[in-house]
From TrEMBL, chain A:
Transmembrane segments: none annotated. This is Transketolase. It comes from the Bacteria. It comes from Candidatus Campbellbacteria bacterium RIFCSPLOWO2_02_35_12. SMART domains: Transket_pyr (SM00861). Keywords: Thiamine pyrophosphate, Transferase. Belongs to the transketolase family.
UniProtKB/TrEMBL annotation, chain B:
This is Transketolase. Pfam families: Transketolase_N. It comes from Candidatus Campbellbacteria bacterium RIFCSPLOWO2_02_35_12. Residues 15-269 form the Transketolase N-terminal domain. The keyword Coiled coil applies.
Length: 332, 286
């Protein structure tokens, strides 16, 4: 059942009445809040201010908005200089371009430099939809989580994106925040706990047969799958694993010890993503059967968001199937 | 024009010679590293750390200090040698260059050595970082100046021109860039590898003010830096014509010395050449 302590919305499974909002909107609000709290917050964008929602900050604080143009390497390096000087720079673009195109600049001038730049990659995942593979980032988690000093966040809805943005502003490390273009269910509330580095149990059960560890927009699908599985007599846990780095090893291990099997879910390549990070922990600490939901060594394509999520095997039915499979794999 | 007097210039020139000797010793001890660019920039580094920069080696994080960003981090030996002579750390630490556990990494790292403003080495990123610092400083009405030293070879990089556009657009006149125009890069002469000329006109087209100087004429360089402070409407780039390997005849102009250190035997010969100013005076070490 839904964990009451998570303070999720009441109508979480009512598709008709549940509010929908893209995570990038939550970022837009969180950045304005951070800017209100601290004048050191500045925002930079590479000619995508409207679609990354950084525009909301720009309108409120025009003197603290810096336009970079279509130049993502410059986006990262100018921000590095601002952070070294003492500002709190947020840089926003599409994730394929930043941290994609400017990866070396992020590695050297932000990560190795330990310059606390906040990198915001919007339009991650196939749910970008009609724009197609060129604009659907499926490797950004992998690129960012291998970098020392970097914190990596993938919020599950717009409200969590707001909190993640605000909290990221006031951490001393570089941070990567992964966002999506398309609308997705808004199911957490202002009271839902959020702390960087702390995974939350969103769906609990007394005798779980598996734990679903999810991040980003797909957490809602995971909850839907958990409910339907429960109706069929299969009990699971669902963890909202928004912090991919540093990962909440304790919560994950506790959950896996209780459940004995794992399904990870992310809108990202299987290779190098959140699931891989979970597998690295489990292989060393507590080996357990694991199934990975995500994109299998392919690029995306044009289509509607939900069409693509289904096609690439990240829909509710695929999750349920993966849970049943992993439960069968458990050594009794 | 600066009011720097002849005696001071002479003192800086002598110091530059001493620093070149330190560079030769460091590179020989390290067994790898970049000789030509380091020697070629000795006079300019001297001018910066012993005359131009408003800084405090005993308090490297002093908020009001001028910032010197070294974009082409591979000439770290001249940066370290100059910083040691200026009092940032003990001179004997220069012998730890490129060694395990050393603060003097093969390419400079901000997190390891106080006084290093940015981590650098991968070419092409320093100008934009300097631009970020200068932009932030201007937002806060800070009076310090930001300087960015670049190589000519790294002008090949797209990131440089993104930065050139950004600095030009924002008229960051509190930033002065210096290009070490020594005409060599790893694969050969810059004009053969990827022609940069007309370099002056390129910067002009991006709304910069351009000055060209002899990078071994300390007075001329200091005058250009002073002049740049008076230009409010544009950022300035000083194209400093230098001789790679300057001070040692065998190395001068030879691109093969871009990325290799002297052997022990060569070092002995080179140090003697520097100490005797190419045979003009007697070395006190002889």
């Amino acid at each position: 059942m839904i964990n009451k302590d998570a303070k999720l919305v009441k109508n979480i499974f009512e598709k008709d009445s549940l509010e929908q909002e893209p995570t990038r909107d939550g970022f837009g609000r969180g950045l304005v809040e951070a800017g209100e709290k601290d004048k050191k917050v500045v925002a930079l964008c590479a000619d995508l201010s409207e679609s990354t929602r950084i525009e909301w900050f720009q309108k409120k604080f025009p003197e603290r908005y810096i336009e970079i143009g279509v130049a993502e390497q410059n986006l990262a390096t100018v921000a590095s200089g601002l952070a070294i000087y003492g500002k709190i720079p947020f840089i926003a673009s599409y994730a394929t371009f930043s941290p994609g195109r400017n990866n070396e600049q992020i590695r050297t001038t932000i990560s190795l430099n330990n310059a606390p730049v906040k990198i915001v990659g919007s339009h991650a995942g196939v749910s970008v939809g009609p724009d197609g593979a060129t604009h659907q980032a499926l490797e950004d988690i992998a690129l960012m989580r291998v970098l020392p000093n970097m914190t990596v966040l993938a919020p599950c809805d717009a409200e969590e994106a707001r909190k993640a943005t605000f909290e990221a502003a006031f951490t001393r490390t570089p941070v990567y925040i992964r966002l999506a273009r398309d609308k997705s269910p808004l199911f957490t509330t202002a009271d839902t706990p959020f702390e960087i580095g702390k995974a939350e149990i969103f769906w609990d059960s007394e005798k779980p047969q598996a734990v679903i560890i999810a991040c980003g927009n797909l957490v809602h699908n995971a909850l839907f799958a958990a409910k339907e599985l429960s109706d069929d007599g299969v009990e699971v846990l669902v963890l909202n694993n928004h912090t991919i780095k540093p990962m909440d090893t304790k919560t994950i291990l506790d959950a896996v010890k209780r459940a004995g099997a794992v399904v990870t879910i992310e809108e990202h390549q299987i290779a190098g993503g959140m699931g891989s990070a979970v597998a690295e922990i489990l292989a060393q600490e507590h080996p357990a059967p694991i199934e990975f939901i995500g994109v299998h060594n392919q690029f995306g394509q044009s289509g509607k968001s939900n069409e693509l999520i289904e096609h690439y095997g990240m829909g509710v039915n695929s999750i349920k199937e993966a849970v049943r499979k992993v439960v069968r794999r458990k050594v009794i | 024009m600066s009011d720097i007097h002849e005696e001071k210039i002479k003192e800086l020139e002598e110091k530059a010679n001493e620093i070149r000797q330190t560079v030769i010793k460091m590179l020989t001890e390290a067994g790898s590293g970049h000789t030509a660019g380091s020697l070629g920039m000795a006079d300019i580094f001297m001018a910066f750390y012993f005359h131009i920069l408003n800084h405090n080696p005993k308090n490297p994080d002093w908020e009001e200090r001028d910032r010197l960003i070294l974009s082409n981090g591979h000439i770290a030996p001249i940066l370290y040698a100059t910083m040691a002579h200026a009092g940032y750390f003990p001179l004997k630490e220069t012998m730890t260059l490129r060694k395990f556990g050393a603060r003097l990494q093969g390419h400079p790292e901000r997190e390891r050595l106080p006084g290093i403003e940015t981590t650098s080495g991968p070419l092409g990123s320093g100008l934009s970082q300097a631009a970020g610092i200068a932009y932030g400083a201007r937002m806060d009405d800070k009076k310090f100046r930001t300087y960015c030293l670049m190589s000519d070879g790294e002008q090949d990089a797209g990131n440089i021109w993104e930065g050139v556009m950004f600095v030009g657009k924002n008229k960051l006149s509190n930033l002065t860039a210096i290009i070490d125009r020594n005409n060599i890069q790893i694969n050969g002469m810059t004009e053969d590898v990827m022609p940069l000329e007309p370099l002056k006109e390129k910067y002009e087209a991006f709304n910069w003010h351009i000055m060209e100087v002899d990078g071994h004429n300390i007075k001329e360089f200091i005058d250009a830096i002073d002049m740049a402070k008076a230009i409010y409407e544009k950022p300035t780039v000083i194209i400093a014509r230098t001789i790679p390997g300057k001070g040692i005849k065998e190395i001068e102009f030879d691109y093969k010395w871009h990325g290799k250190p002297p052997s022990k035997e060569e070092a002995k010969k080179f140090l003697n050449e520097l100490r005797t100013l190419g045979g003009k005076i007697e070395s006190e070490h002889q």
